[in-house]
Automatic annotation (TrEMBL), chain A:
<dbReference type="InterPro" id="IPR024403">
    <property type="entry name" value="DHOase_cat"/>
</dbReference>
<dbReference type="GO" id="GO:0046872">
    <property type="term" value="F:metal ion binding"/>
</dbReference>
<dbReference type="GO" id="GO:0006145">
    <property type="term" value="P:purine nucleobase catabolic process"/>
</dbReference>
<dbReference type="InterPro" id="IPR011059">
    <property type="entry name" value="Metal-dep_hydrolase_composite"/>
</dbReference>
<dbReference type="InterPro" id="IPR050138">
    <property type="entry name" value="DHOase/Allantoinase_Hydrolase"/>
</dbReference>
<dbReference type="GO" id="GO:0006221">
    <property type="term" value="P:pyrimidine nucleotide biosynthetic process"/>
</dbReference>
<keyword id="KW-0665">Pyrimidine biosynthesis</keyword>
<dbReference type="GO" id="GO:0004151">
    <property type="term" value="F:dihydroorotase activity"/>
</dbReference>
<dbReference type="GO" id="GO:0004038">
    <property type="term" value="F:allantoinase activity"/>
</dbReference>
UniProtKB/TrEMBL annotation, chain B:
<feature type="binding site">
    <location>
        <position position="278"/>
    </location>
    <ligand>
        <name>carbamoyl phosphate</name>
    </ligand>
</feature>
<dbReference type="GO" id="GO:0005829">
    <property type="term" value="C:cytosol"/>
</dbReference>
<feature type="domain" description="Aspartate/ornithine carbamoyltransferase carbamoyl-P binding">
    <location>
        <begin position="16"/>
        <end position="160"/>
    </location>
</feature>
<dbReference type="InterPro" id="IPR036901">
    <property type="entry name" value="Asp/Orn_carbamoylTrfase_sf"/>
</dbReference>
<feature type="binding site">
    <location>
        <position position="151"/>
    </location>
    <ligand>
        <name>carbamoyl phosphate</name>
    </ligand>
</feature>
<protein>
    <recommendedName>
        <fullName>Aspartate carbamoyltransferase</fullName>
        <ecNumber>2.1.3.2</ecNumber>
    </recommendedName>
</protein>
<dbReference type="Pfam" id="PF02729">
    <property type="entry name" value="OTCace_N"/>
</dbReference>
<dbReference type="Pfam" id="PF00185">
    <property type="entry name" value="OTCace"/>
</dbReference>
<comment type="function">
    <text>Catalyzes the condensation of carbamoyl phosphate and aspartate to form carbamoyl aspartate and inorganic phosphate, the committed step in the de novo pyrimidine nucleotide biosynthesis pathway.</text>
</comment>
Length: 421, 329
């Protein structure tokens, strides 16, 4: 047996509550031993990771891949490369491609292109309704056979409660998990930022908190009735956090995530009409942001990317005309680490929300333990670089750290023992 | 990048664009009013033009139709001796799929010196000011619900000329505050110029959330809101508000918030009545008040030209000053 030897890394593994400087030996894509040399075999290669952190690979519960259909924004290859550079070993792709991922052909196409590119592994989310229209059920069973790990309607809501109930019942029959976005379109329609004092001052149509909480209440009640395995994608409100807590206390099987942007920024960022901060769901108040950070600290929320790469023209428009979303994959982990440097989260809490918690949502395991797949990130907290457009892998340069100094750098990323970055 | 005033002011604090009244100093707002005052006297002469913008090209860039506002800008530019080009974008370029950026690059290629912009998106003028090449001044003639700063300044001029000063006055703005760029610009200007109290009066559906954070006091009862007011500003009510579940009917709105002689009696006896126009008689204001002694609605129109001349002249002079002469020694 020939081993990859990672020496002197600070191994942070929230699953086992480990945080120690030690050595890791990898063979056949798995962690052979931790902290001790294997009994037999030879070392093929040693990485001196002194000063670096070794953490489980990140798993994204929702990012937009621009292929098929939006080649002006990037490709599966460009975005999975960006994801790998950001520290992701796995990403769930949202089904709002063109055509939407409501047929096994599209799901297979995504899987093939991602596999050929050889960067982060893509776990496609299938469409839960045909053409994401929220009316007819998509062939969810066929989509999961083709490789879709769960079904989603992206941010296009299922307006009709009857349809929502039936699709939950149907998915529950085959234990297909659903990723649901809480968005009552009749309340959010036309809005482009959080409804509140900033929107009032800037004259921008607001999206009230109730657009999320009313839809969330409807989802939670129907999940309770149907018993479907449900994950709530991209919650943004303090009130939603307490509603989820209550649902868990009542014994409901629900999990949830929040986009990284909502942990880092508030609606104040929109002052000055910078279209970069036009995101859906919207950036909300400081009270909301604090509640989300606390929920992440308690382990109640995973952190997702909501990665949305856009070409320049899509963002170079007056605020409400710009397409919503931020390109997030490049420099994702260093950006998330600012929550640790600001002392809002411990590194263990952050890493858990980016690896173990999302793995749990998907029924996977992402842990640095002996025998586990070696899905891991070597992160150098001392490194520093400037994120320039020409050096970004993503086709979308609408990144909050573009042309700014990024503190910390993803040095290497491994997926089942193979280097993908 | 985030502070609007880093966009609209020069490094030494003078106007180079006019995008919003928010955050402008009392001195600067007063300078606009004083300059406008000086132009009012030129308007009464037989020869009304002054040569301040001679040789300059001003483009009226209206993405939303407005004959009245466009005409006053056109007249103001002509009285400053500028060449003026009216572009009715609403019916030409953008409807053919050209993006706003394409339109701007085309216009820049014509070497214009100033764009007067009206657009239905909040922040559009701000966006254009950030994108155009240096030395092109942007005057915001109304962007979405955000700002209509020249209208607000002509209203300030009207108050100052009729009430002597804005300091210490109680001002009520009545009607559809939610969709009103005029109201937002007025509130900022009134607060900066020292008004004792700015009240906003309307039903809950037409008052934006957290309006108190802008320094305005909300009232639902018009009579209570008008008590002791020095100035009553009525806003135009758009017909489409009835289709959006914001109001039940024009009739009920008029009963509750229409300005009548009876309701006006709750304000101070010498209170003035203003309206940015065009007025809907019998919807937000009754004719007896619109045409009555306390109404200064027609005066507002004539001050509008002077205020626009003042702002155009000031912004153009802010553009012409060399910011940094980087001559090597």
């Amino acid at each position: 047996m020939r081993y990859l030897h990672i020496a002197n890394a600070r191994v942070i593994n929230p699953q086992t509550q480990t945080d120690e400087i030690t050595d890791v030996f990898v063979a056949d894509g798995r962690i052979a031993t931790l902290g001790r040399r294997p009994d037999a075999g030879e070392i093929e290669h040693t990485i001196d990771a002194t000063g670096q952190w070794l953490i489980p690979g990140l798993i994204d519960l929702g990012g937009h891949l621009p292929e098929p259909g939006y080649s002006q924004k990037g490709s599966i290859a460009s975005e999975t490369e960006a994801a790998a550079r950001g520290g992701f070993t796995h990403i769930c792709s949202l089904p709002d491609t063109k055509p939407v991922a409501d047929t096994s052909a599209v799901v297979k196409l995504i899987l093939e292109k991602a596999s050929k590119a050889g960067f982060s592994r893509v776990l496609p989310l299938g469409a839960m309704t045909q053409d994401l229209a929220g009316e007819q059920l998509a062939s969810m069973y066929t989509l999961s056979e083709a490789g879709a790990v769960a079904m989603s309607n992206a941010r296009r809501p299922v307006r009709n409660s009857y349809v929502l109930r039936r699709l939950m019942e149907y998915a529950a029959t085959y234990d297909i998990p659903l990723f649901l976005n809480a968005n009552d379109l009749s309340l959010s329609d036309g809005g482009c930022m959080h409804e509140g004092p900033v929107a009032t001052r800037m004259g921008l149509p607001g999206i009230p908190e109730t657009a999320e909480t009313i839809a969330l209440a409807q989802i939670l009640l129907l999940v309770e009735q149907t018993g479907v395995r449900a994950h709530i994608s991209q919650i943004t409100c303090r009130r939603s956090v307490s509603m989820l807590q209550q649902a868990l206390e009542n014994g409901l099987r629900v999990t949830a995530d929040t986009p990284l942007a909502n942990l880092l920024y508030t609606h104040e960022a929109v002052t000055g009409y910078d279209s970069l901060y036009n995101v859906q769901p919207p950036l909300r108040s400081e009270r909301d942001r604090e509640a989300l950070v606390q929920a992440v600290a308690r382990g109640e929320l995973a952190i997702s990317s909501n990665h949305s790469p856009h070409e320049i023209a899509a963002k170079k428009a007056p605020f409400s005309d710009a397409e919503p979303g931020m390109s997030q994959y490049d420099a994702f982990l260093p950006q998330a680490m600012t929550l640790v440097s600001r002392e809002e989260l411990t590194v263990e809490q952050l890493v858990r929300a980016l690896s173990a918690t999302p793995a749990n949502v998907l029924g996977l395991s992402q842990s640095l333990t002996e025998g586990a797949d070696f899905n891991a990130v070597l992160y150098d907290p001392r490194d520093e670089y400037t994120l320039t457009a020409s050096e970004m892998a993503s086709g979308g340069h609408n990144h909050p750290l573009l042309n700014r100094t990024v503190a910390g750098k993803v040095a290497q990323v491994f997926l089942e023992g193979c280097r993908i970055c | 990048m985030t502070d609007p005033n880093t966009v609209q002011l020069t490094e030494d604090g003078r106007l180079k664009h006019f995008l919003t009244t928010e955050g402008l100093s009392r001195e600067l707002l007063t300078e606009i009013l004083d300059t406008a005052d000086s132009f009012i006297s030129t308007q009464e002469r037989a020869v009304k033009t002054v040569p301040l913008l001679r040789g300059k090209t001003v483009v009226n860039l209206f993405f939303e139709n407005s004959t009245r506002t466009r005409s006053t800008f056109e007249l103001a530019a002509k009285r400053l001796s500028a060449d003026i080009l009216n572009l009715d974008i609403a019916r030409s370029a953008t409807s053919k799929g050209e993006t706003l950026m394409d339109t701007l690059w085309n216009l820049e290629a014509m070497y214009s010196d100033m764009f007067v912009v009206r657009h239905s998106d909040s922040g559009a003028a701000h966006f254009i000011a950030e994108q155009v090449t240096p030395n092109v001044a942007i005057i915001n003639a109304g962007d979405g619900r955000h700002a209509h700063p020249t209208q607000a300044m002509l209203d300030m001029l009207t108050i100052r000329r009729h009430k002597g000063d804005i300091e210490g006055k109680i001002v009520a703005i009545v009607g559809d505050i939610l969709h009103s760029r005029v109201a937002r610009s007025q509130i900022h200007a009134l607060r900066t110029l020292g008004a004792a109290e700015v009240r906003v009066i309307g039903p809950g559906t037409l008052l934006p959330s957290d309006i108190e954070s802008m320094g305005a006091v909300p009232y639902y009862d018009m009579r209570a809101g008008l008590a002791d007011c020095d100035v009553v500003i009525m806003l135009r009510l758009q017909k489409e508000r009835m289709q959006n579940a914001l109001l039940p009917s024009e009739g009920e709105f008029f009963k509750l918030y229409g300005l009548t002689k009876e309701k006006l009696a709750f304000a101070k006896p010498d209170a003035i009545v203003m309206h940015p126009g065009p007025i809907n008689r019998g919807v937000e204001i009754e004719s007896a008040v619109a045409d009555g002694d306390q109404s200064v609605i027609l005066n507002q129109v004539s001050y509008g030209i002077a205020v626009r001349m003042a702002v155009m002249a000031m912004a153009m002079s802010g553009q012409q000053t060399p910011v940094n002469s980087e001559e090597p020694a």
